[in-house]
Design brief:
alpha/beta; transferase; single chain; Methyltransferase domain-containing protein; globular; 211 residues; methyltransferase activity
């Protein structure tokens, strides 16, 4: 089963749409802040495009998604980047996301060889491991128009986004659900595969290409 969490009017093709509103294309109406009425180990892919920042308790929802997912299920999250004034000032957004986020979703972090780097956590890392294990397969940053490559080199952007806000607009992750032992080689191989992504991601790239 493939589910699209908080799909709204943009349910991903071939997915079961879940939202808290009755809308065209929504297959199941339920409260995303409550347990989802689906059985354990029944989901192979979760699409969460621009929806998770609105939930009341992010950790509770991730715990619920972990329950639903089979081993090696993939979870794709597209979310606002934490260090953008447009998102910081939005009172409806309860959670922000950046390149540190993947390190909070597992006690056994894996850094894929390709894609953006997740920096190390320092003094304020989690005191206890999370009750789930989502390991990073891919992370992509979508930059604000003034900073879109090739106007800047990627090395320049890495420095810029650590020094000032409003460099990155959104961020996308692909995580794999780990419930059994898995090797780094296997994770690396998965990270290099073709992974479904939200339509919004293609729209963002098209916007940059036309700039």
């Amino acid at each position: 089963m493939k589910i699209d969490i908080g799909c709204g009017l943009n349910k991903h093709p071939g997915f079961w749409g879940i939202d808290n509103r009755v809308l065209p294309g929504v297959d199941m109406v339920c409260d995303l802040n409550a347990p989802l009425p689906l059985p354990d180990n029944s989901v192979e892919f979760v699409m969460a495009s621009r929806s998770l920042p609105y939930v009341h308790n992010f950790e509770a929802l991730m715990t619920e998604l972990y329950r639903l997912c089979i081993h090696k299920a993939v979870v794709c999250i597209l979310a606002p980047y934490a260090h953008s004034f447009a998102h910081v000032s939005n009172p409806s957004l309860k959670h922000k996301f950046d390149e540190y986020t993947p390190r909070y979703l597992t006690a056994s972090f894996f850094q894929p060889s390709q894609g953006a780097i997740c920096p190390e956590l320092y003094a304020y890392g989690p005191e206890t491991p999370p009750p789930y294990d989502f390991r990073l397969l891919r992370m992509e940053l979508f930059y604000q128009i003034p900073f879109v490559p090739p106007l800047y080199e990627l090395e320049e952007l890495e420095v810029l986004k650590t020094l000032q806000a409003n460099v990155v607009q959104e961020i996308m992750y692909h995580f794999v659900v780990i419930k059994e032992p898995v090797s780094d080689d296997e994770l690396e191989q998965m990270s290099r595969g073709v992974l479904p992504e939200p339509n919004h991601a293609a729209d963002l790239r098209r916007e940059y290409h036309n700039f």
